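Methods — Computational structure assignment.
A single polypeptide chain was analysed. Its primary sequence is given first, followed by the predicted tertiary structure written as structure tokens.
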Amino acid sequence: MKIAILPGDGIGPEIVAQAVKVLDALGESFEIETAPVGGAAYELHGHPLPDSTLNLAKQADAVLFGAVGDWKYDSLERSLRPEQAILGLRKNLNLFANLRPAILYPELAGASTLKPEVVSGLDLLIIRELTGDIYFGQPRGVRTCPDGPFTGEREGFDTMRYAETEVRRIAHVAFQAAQKRNRRLTSVDKANVLETFQFWKEIVIDVHREYPDVTLDHMYVDNAAMQLIRAPKKFDVIVTGNMFGDILSDAAAMLTGSIGMLPSASLDANNKGLYEPSHGSAPDLAGKDLANPLATILSAAMMLRFSLNKAEQADRIETAVKQVLAQGLRTADIHESGTVKLGTQAMGDAVVKALK
């Protein structure tokens, strides 16, 4: 099976190297090919997603992605910024379903910013629609304001839009995921003020007829953000749009003790996917051996389970991560009194040791 490795920028190469090290320790015969992406690709090819990298991603059975972005590229025109690489990959590979599990390991209850009695035992799944919404909607841009109280001034504008097929397919993914868990689905919207999400809500309700064994409720996004902090264990599966999902999943990440613990999978209709940690490139940490590689290692486990049909090997990696945490080994972001602080490479080595 062919895996495309796209390390990217900042801490991306460091954390991806640890995940590859763990994959190698499984003893499987994967074909692994690496290509530049993001700012690294811009430096080499003048574009964050060159054709050679995109073609590799299309040919591979799965993609393991690090992170992209660096402040030094902020002055580039938008189409050339590193972040356009991940948007381009999602669009070109039709990766419409983003799965972000937020699990609080018992050993990290003290690392969460919430009280243990509020967050202990947390296990929720956020499913984010990934290729529509305001991030991709057209028209967009900067223009002269044509009407209203600021007519004649410059204005920026983006368009929030969803086609019925987009909403239906992500709803099916969410209901099916809920069937495999606790059969509870919360659809997060802003139907009280946005036509797009009134439309979203109506379609989700219609799809629910095919899944009578799943309990469905609806929640406005502002209330959902509050409830994630107030009573996060009340959620099982959350489904929402691209922008709301982007925000809520990062908020949920901090419930787990660190965003460095949150893996993710972005899947197409056939479960081919791109797997990446939910955190960013953290250029201020790059090269310092400080980054937490566990989210990337857990993303590799998700890759084995969802795209490569190797659930047993995925279980082995997840068990190894649990063993490392049980041994009291921590990176700086989850370190607390009484535990042992490790760097990026040492944490990767610890997972490999536990795996063997």
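Note: Residues 164-179 form the longest helix (16 residues).
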